[in-house]
Amino acid sequence: MAFVKDMLRMWAHSWKRFISIAMITLLGVAVLTGIYAGCRDAFRSTDRFFDAQGLHDVQVLSTAGLSNGDIAALRKVNGVAKVQAERSQEVTFDLDGRKSATMQEIGTDGIDQPYLQEGRMPKKAGEIAVTRKFIRDSGKRIGSRLTVTPESASSDTSDADNSGTDNSGTNEASGTDEAPSFPTKLTIVGVVLDPQNLSNPDGYSAMTSFRSTATTDYTFFAPSDGVTGTLCTSATLLVKGAAAESTFDESYENTVKQVTDRIDGTVKTDRQKARRQELLDAGNRKIADARAEADKKFADAQSQIDANRQQFNQQVDQIVSMQAGAAAAGAAANGANAGAAAAAGATTPQLDETTRETMRETIIAASPELTQAKQQLDQAQSQLNEQKASTEQTLKTKENELKTSIPQVRWYVQDRQSLGGFSALKSDLDSIQSLGNAFPIVFLLVAVMMSLTAMARMVEEDRSLIGTYVGLGYGRLAVASRYLLFALLACLIGGGLGLIAGFLGIPAFLLVVLQGMYVMPGLRLEYDWLYGSLGIALFVVGVLAATIYACVQEMRQTPASLLRPKAPRAGSRILLERIRPVWNRIGFLGKVTARNIFRFKSRLIMTVGGVAGCTALIVCGLAINDTVADLGIKQYRDIYQYDLMVVSDDSDASAMRTKVASDGRVTSSLDVRIESGDLAISGGGDGDSGKAGSSGSESIQLVAVPEKHLSDLGEMVTLQPVSSGMLGTSGVGKTGSLKLDDDGVIVAQSAASALGVKAGSKVRLTNGDGVRATAKVSAVNRNLIGSDVYVSETYYAKLFDSKDAKNTKNSKSSEDSEALTWNAMLVKLSGSDTSQTDYAESLEEDSSVMKAVSCAHMADSFKFDLMGAVVALIVALAGGLALVVLFTLANTNVSERVREMATLKVLGFFDREVHHYVNREMMILTVMGVILGLPLGRLVGGMLTMALNMPSLYFEVEVKPLSYVIAAVATMAFALLVQLFVNPVLDRIDPISSLKSVE
């Protein structure tokens, strides 16, 4: 019992060490669990929401729409739980200018169901539910009315009717399928959240400026009532067993991938062919119907002409008969036989055909009316013959052109990764979670170092007591348990408080920031018993290991040795003493300070190491902030030399270029072709994603450059080759040393880093039409935001078998150089940044422009708010750790030197002089730690590229000089703050009791 009481008294006396170990454990456990818990809570709540709303696992799109046969084929795929046919239509309306929206039918099979936030779901024709973004932008409310116009619907229909077959591939499915059509007079009855886009329109958004993939401004949800047309715009699928997996885990991706691979196999190929054949059959039927209708009209016209000609001939024949009879009668009257004359006059004379035809022509020529009538009949017949010949030629031409006019049908099989909102949320949380996995390691190392320092001093202070207990027969394990239980209790209390902060405080802070970026219904904080227990256990093991080491170091001696005071360290010269010119000029107290600092190497290492670690954490956090802050400026002002990128549909490319050129603001430009594609590691060189060796893919922007203007690319984009360095760093080559040629593609650094691609690698490229090809990477270009892949026109043709562009390299004519449709322009503009931004906005109002992006606007509007919040959190925790470390080291230093401080007081030192004597050593050690911690923080910050591996982003780590100053000043400020706590301890040292003999 006395042993226990003495142990409790010893614990109470060492309360400062107890608090230090508990605080270090608290901070470490909080960092270890807090960021993890915040991200996990967001992942879980989002996964529950997706499951509740039936967010599709797979979406199938087709360039020719999906027929009932396509839907039936998808239902038969093994592993598909449910298929929902989707009907949608793009519409436009006036809202401070021309805006676009997608009219989306609310599915009846429970897939992609909008989440009701206000009002009610639409049920009748003409009722719609809108997103909160539309409510905010338009100022409308529930009950407001809206009139929309189907985009290009009238022109498409008229073109299809006039051309017969030109647009049969889009608007005419198989003779009976019709494109979807929605009501145009709409009434808002509800406000909903689109499960495919969780961006918060009322808060601040992270990187939406470069992540947005929406083709329209808004989405309107309408019921099936009032929707016509049997052709589906897409099909959404749920996969068996996918709902049981977390949508953000690899197991979910593997489950879905099995189904997408099956669809990409025979189903996709067969249905593409079948669908195109349906379109060909529909076109042939239209041609046959047109021929039958034309034949009927021509037959009716020919019958009318024949009837008119018969009537005309009868009239002429009557005149011929009359003239022939009159001639016969006159001949008989001049003869002698009157009876013969009478007989001749009583009958019509018989004329041969030649004579009759001669008489007809004579009669017609003599009569202007008959001549005109004959000319009209001949002209009508001639026109009819020409129309018949022309129509037949047209129909034959249509038949010959039908196969080429209807393009190959292409399916696009996409999973949730293709949803811009989903991928943005996932990449944000993954990046923050990666930081949460990296920083606790530093906290653990510092915790072990400080625990070793504190517990070693605690054991050393009880040296004689330990010898007494061992001499009385107590086992070494029993004696060591005094300190092991002390450390264990401190870790458990600190760890418990750390769990509260880690599973409540930090997640609450992170989720407040996340909810400013995304809407996550049903979000709640959850405790993970396993992870929390393992988090505490990790620090318990580390601290107990340090305590065991300290106990073993002392208890290996005999009780007699332990009962005697520890022999003072043998005096020795320090290196500075050997530098006589310097040493001789140092004062007495300066020499004492130097000896104290360098003779006690363990204290030197622990203090400098602890301060350096904390300073490095602060520098690393500030490095993240500086890196993110400069991403937009570096990308849109340094790498992108152009001021404006304009993109159009292929059909509007010429009109777009004319529009931009006619505005008179362009100083130079480069026509390019931009397509949305995919980049993946090539599996064995054939581009098959199923091959071994494929390790993920990246969405890219494929930029094809005209062969004659390859050298102009360097004027629009800064081309700098990069190479991989040690620990995730990279080396940047000389500007302008990189050229685009016909031997390979230039891949952006952001995509290359994510996939591990380097110069000489083989990659699988997918272009905008979904065609895959294996390409060689000629170089990796410095690029921070977005994933651009540059390819020459000739190499593009080689990769994707563009027949019209095979010989563009040696072509002389301008016609040959237009093999690809240059649907985009990179433009340098005159004027200020504000005028350039306004010009880009005005261009987007033009019907020929799909997208206009101002680099000045992008550079100014780039934000990464979530990362900034986490950086603030990490810097605050690192500062707290620095404060605890300095407090622990300062108290340990004082406890080790109580007799020395008492001696100084006996010698006549005033309290302030004692403060200065002790604090000067701590400040010098702190400065040494800061000097070591600043470059160490830069080195650790340089490794962040490996941790922050995000889609379409490369973190080119940069630390501004101000950040170094802030880190140094903060650490020194913590050291000064600690002095305020230590000075009273120095004042309370009693020289008499402190100098009593320990024996």
From TrEMBL:
Record-level GO cellular component terms: plasma membrane
Membrane topology: Multi-pass membrane protein
Keyword Transmembrane helix: yes
Parts of the chain that traverse the membrane: 438-456, 483-509, 529-552, 604-624, 866-889, 922-944, 964-986
Predominant subcellular localization, coarse grouping: membrane
ABC3 transporter permease C-terminal domain ranges (all copies): 438-549, 873-978
Sorted UniProt keywords: Cell membrane, Coiled coil, Membrane, Transmembrane, Transmembrane helix
InterPro entries with a match to the protein in the record: ABC3_permease_C (IPR003838), Membrane_comp_ABC_pdt (IPR038766)
Coiled coil, from the record: 370-401
Region (Disordered), start-end ranges: 141-182, 679-698
Protein name per its UniProtKB record: FtsX-like permease family protein
Biological classification of the source: Bacteria, Bacillati, Actinomycetota, Actinomycetes, Bifidobacteriales
